[in-house]
Design goal:
Number of strands: 11
Helix content: 25-40%
Largest sheet: 9 strands, mixed
Shape: globular
Strand content: 15-25%
CATH class: Alpha Beta
Number of helices: 8
CATH architecture: 3-Layer(aba) Sandwich
Length: 231
């Protein structure tokens, strides 16, 4: 399975610190609890707590350069997660789509699969290695490459709604959706590249709220949370 974490979720609201060690520790403890049950877990983490390439390009920076900077931000978050997981005695490997051999392995699909088979958590960093693609797309791509059973997208909303629940108090949450229904209703589940990859490669998606008590562990261990999207 692939768990997609938002980089912004690693930062405490209102804090000037880009990474909150207590938040990372809580995440790591939940991942450890799920991993202890024998699950093969791969992680993809964003870099929004440090840098958002699209926002920078909207303010005048050249888009490809801004995106590469965002990829480097994801490597810092991946290393923070690795450090905390290994402090909890969870064997972990970081694989980067941009070669930086002093801090991470290069992404090699067969090696990633072997790590998972050996019971290691694999963290995929630096996005796809290409500008113009989000970490949502990275999660969908890596899940397809390692033949993951499911993708979990951890957000700050408890699933997918028919309208924005922050703006509409009458918004209705879906328990389950098909890919086609999500497209027809124009629901913003993921960016279009990521969603297309999930649909074409038949990778089910669970969108859930990671901010609740023990929600990451519950999602990974199969407890009903959020919204389930499938073929």
């Amino acid at each position: 399975m692939v768990l997609k974490l938002s980089g912004e979720a690693l930062r405490e609201d209102g804090s000037q610190d880009n990474i909150s060690p207590p938040i990372v520790e809580r995440m790591a403890e939940q991942i450890k609890a799920a991993h202890r049950g024998g699950l093969e877990i791969a992680l993809v983490v964003g870099g929004g707590n440090f840098w958002r390439g699209v926002s920078a390009s909207n303010r005048g920076m050249e888009r490809a350069t801004a995106d590469y900077m965002g990829m480097l931000a994801t490597v810092m978050n991946a290393l923070a997660l690795q450090s905390m997981l290994e402090a909890l005695e969870v064997p972990t490997r970081v694989q980067s789509a941009i070669e930086m051999k002093n801090v991470a392995e290069p992404f090699i699909r067969r090696k990633a699969v072997r790590h998972l088979e050996k019971g290691r958590v694999v963290i995929f960093a630096a996005g796809t290695g290409n500008p113009f693609f989000s970490t949502d797309t990275t999660a969908a791509l890596r899940a397809s490459e390692i033949d993951a059973d499911v993708i979990f997208k951890a957000t700050k909303v408890d699933g997918i709604y028919d309208s924005d629940p922050m703006k509409n108090s009458d918004a209705v949450r879906y328990e389950t959706l098909t890919f086609q229904e999500a497209l027809t209703k124009q629901l913003k589940v993921m960016d279009s590249s990521a969603f297309s990859l999930c649909m074409e490669n038949d990778k089910p998606l669970v969108v859930f709220d990671m901010m609740g008590d023990d929600m990451i562990r519950k999602a990974l261990t199969g407890e009903p949370v959020g919204t389930f999207v499938c073929a």
